[in-house]
Amino acid sequence: MSRAKEIRDRVHEIIFEADTPAGKAFDVGLLIAIVSSVMVVMLESVKEIREQFASELQWAEWIFTALFTVEYLLRIYSVQKPHKYIFSFYGIVDLLAILPSFLQPFVAGSRYLVTIRTLRLLRIFRVLKLANYVVQGQVISRALRASRAKITVFLIAVMTLVVIVGSIMYVIEGGEESQGGFTSIPRSIYWAIVTVTTVGYGDIAPVSDLGQALSAVLMIMGYGIIAVPTGIVSVELTQAQKELEAGLNTISCPVCSREGHDNDATFCKYCGGEL
Amino acid sequence: MSRAKEIRDRVHEIIFEADTPAGKAFDVGLLIAIVSSVMVVMLESVKEIREQFASELQWAEWIFTALFTVEYLLRIYSVQKPHKYIFSFYGIVDLLAILPSFLQPFVAGSRYLVTIRTLRLLRIFRVLKLANYVVQGQVISRALRASRAKITVFLIAVMTLVVIVGSIMYVIEGGEESQGGFTSIPRSIYWAIVTVTTVGYGDIAPVSDLGQALSAVLMIMGYGIIAVPTGIVSVELTQAQKELEAGLNTISCPVCSREGHDNDATFCKYCGGEL
Amino acid sequence: MSRAKEIRDRVHEIIFEADTPAGKAFDVGLLIAIVSSVMVVMLESVKEIREQFASELQWAEWIFTALFTVEYLLRIYSVQKPHKYIFSFYGIVDLLAILPSFLQPFVAGSRYLVTIRTLRLLRIFRVLKLANYVVQGQVISRALRASRAKITVFLIAVMTLVVIVGSIMYVIEGGEESQGGFTSIPRSIYWAIVTVTTVGYGDIAPVSDLGQALSAVLMIMGYGIIAVPTGIVSVELTQAQKELEAGLNTISCPVCSREGHDNDATFCKYCGGEL
Amino acid sequence: MSRAKEIRDRVHEIIFEADTPAGKAFDVGLLIAIVSSVMVVMLESVKEIREQFASELQWAEWIFTALFTVEYLLRIYSVQKPHKYIFSFYGIVDLLAILPSFLQPFVAGSRYLVTIRTLRLLRIFRVLKLANYVVQGQVISRALRASRAKITVFLIAVMTLVVIVGSIMYVIEGGEESQGGFTSIPRSIYWAIVTVTTVGYGDIAPVSDLGQALSAVLMIMGYGIIAVPTGIVSVELTQAQKELEAGLNTISCPVCSREGHDNDATFCKYCGGEL
């Protein structure tokens, strides 16, 4: 084993694994660095703070970006199949976490997008070995994936509804001098979305009697509509939960071969045979 | 078979079927045309764009309307029982999609209602052969239909509530000079709907202590109330889902009599026997 | 049977029963009168309409009130145990439906409360013999009754939360010159309710950084909190639905073997056999 | 038994138990005192009332604080293991209920925090012996505890989403002269939370087309997102309810006396002994 390979393996162990003390220290340090760097960018956007600590924040930001860039290059260097890492979910996130800083000279304000670094925090579960949380996260994402088709159908129906209601509202209340703010169909559709999702900013709101009547109908519909995704997710979550539990309960008794034992069972609850 | 009939059959195949290459091309082209025409109308409602591209947009709109009119007439011509198509759901939608443009000279602003064309997009599932999406859509609509009676009872109760609360609020806060905007009972009912559905624009809001107290009670009630349709839909969705799965499991193999085959299966997946 | 009793029985049949043609006609007429009278009061509250049709609306209102008063007296006269009717739910509603008109000379604006007449519309299900709707309504109300204890516990917890958060917010943002509108603790509690129920008028909103941070925490909590009543009602609705299906399907008549008897039935409703 | 111990036991019985008439009277009196004292503080925050009854309210507040302080000291004196009480949930609440009044001379406005006394009202269930309510409360809290892991994962995902969307919005609409109010990233994140939870104050709202489009996407996502906690809590509530019903049949093994067996178990799953 050449010296170069030895170093590469060591680097890989520290950066990618979380089992050795060095690897764990690296991961915890990384999480702290991510949170700190996002904090720095947030604080920089506050006028009072920016004016007082302009250079300090600037420096901190560049140091963090340098650190993350080195880390990104080390990841590519130490991994066996670099292109697999580069195009993986975390590889792309790691790149996006440093890109905005380099785009700053070309695209004004782009550095604020480094807050995309928060996505890197999702590694937290792996680092802290929160196995239960990982499982629960999988249950949720399995339920969401299973309900994808239903949610898509539902969203297309909602989209059709808001386009039509938005247009009718524009005909009723619209015009350049619209008191309610319905200055164009896209804006009226924006209002319909604000209303049907029950957000209700109030920046655009009907003022005519007919407009308010239509608006009331849309709200009542929104009532029923909001029930649909909730119902869908509930059903799928129940399903995903059951599948999880079923997956954990597959041990069958060697004596009577009946299934359905709890995880902590040592003896068959039907015949008393040892599992 | 006369020449006329032959043409009619060919037209029918292209317009109504999506299995032949020509039919599929027609359907995809139609979807693009629908989206484009809705886009044109939306853009036309934006002042800046309308002023710059007035004639282009006008032309585009008339071309799309002409296209859809020709298509509508061809549909009536090629179908065997025209009156059945005309009074079907899609027949009415197809007519509504062209009517507003022709009403434009008589009713100002009516052309914006051509966004009702988006309803025609619901054909998308048929064109793209998204069978799973169609099934999921049926599950949702079956659940909604099954919960119709409960939802109706619920809506009548909510309606009674908002009428009474709206009136009480008018007595408390109302009057021509109402600071909160409660200028009439219909408007107060509108406020009650905005509140109970948790939309909360804030264009009408109580300012007196008593009004705010009543308002708080209504919100807390709205809390419990919003739970009801969600619960109803959840229960019915679970039911519809079960029925769907049962529907997939009813055929038993005549050879090995095992169940659980998909609907489109021709042979038993366990023993290979013909179903 | 005296003449007086005969008349009384006849009046009772018309007013209280909905099976005879006269009784049905009376009930339908009553529903129309209720809706019309509520409409009249609503229209009267609209300034433009009130100024134009002042005397007509006034007349219509008094005629409706006279009609309902006569009807109320006839109900008391014709029923066998008047005090039982007077203190029943519908008896109280019938009285409340005419009281506000008579209180008008003493309490300004009280006549608008006659919209409480809409509660009388709940009779609609009985009149139209919408048996299924009645059953569904019972399922909902049974579910709500079953979840009463849980909902009460939940509401007490929410109340405690809004009182404490409202007070903290008053300490943070409050004072007579509060920019956000937090002028007193009761008003701050009102804001907390508006926020936690996700209504969000925006008439009172935090302006300081600390206030917005606390506000954000409250919203995130409101997120989880709104899930609780929904979950409770879903669970109880499932239960009530099951009980309905079980309750209507379990006992079959030993004589005619038909099913669908109520739980408290002792005899078959089809053949009269003892269950 | 010394005289001192006798007194201490008697005090303990009155203050901590609710079974004797004296104990019950004390608890009811305490609840009334808590509600009254919170009312006094609320009224004091209302300018008009404070100006008129300044000294009366001040007196009432000091009397209540004195009462609660004496009660707190008596609790410590009469309980056998004072440190256990002091660091228990109710011990800390009891201390927090009197602390703000004493901090008043040092921290302005801190006395309004005595509304934390409302937490003491949670004792109400114990006093009124509302056993069913206590059980229902346990079902809810068990469900919430069981869904803790899922809710945490969900909240981390929502947090990541609002940080990223808030930053993007700041880049789109932000700046010191932002018309929509997006003056800094923390404020933009506050807006994202207000939007995704469907509260929608409207104090900060996008005005540009791009901003409104992004906002609409966030709302639609918020739609799906709000369904997740509801689904989670529904599932866990069903589970907790089932466990409660099952728990009413708790059999403990006669051999190893461990509990937690299923209803259909015939043998202990831990030691194999017959149940």
Shape of chain A: flat
**Mean pLDDT, all residues of chain A:** 81
Strand coverage percent of chain A: under 5%
Number of strands of chain A: 0
End-to-end span of chain A in angstroms? 46 Å
Compressed to H and E, one letter per element, the order of chain A equals HHHHHHHHHHH
Continuous helix count of chain A: 11
Fold topology:
The structure is a homotetramer of 275-residue chains.
Chain A (H helix, E strand, L loop, with lengths): L2 H14 L4 H25 L1 H32 L3 H5 L2 H8 L2 H5 L20 H4 L3 H16 L1 H26 L11 H12 L12 H40 L27
Describe the structure.
Four copies of one chain form a homotetramer. With 275 residues, chain A is an all-alpha fold. Chain A is 68% helix and 0% strand. The first copy, chain A, is built from eleven helices and no strands. In chain A, helix 8 (131-146) packs across helix 11 (209-248). The first copy, chain A, is flat and about 80 Å long. The model of chain A has no long low-confidence stretch (mean pLDDT 81). Chains A and D meet through helix 2, helix 8, helix 9, helix 10 and helix 11 of A and helix 9, helix 10 and helix 11 of D.
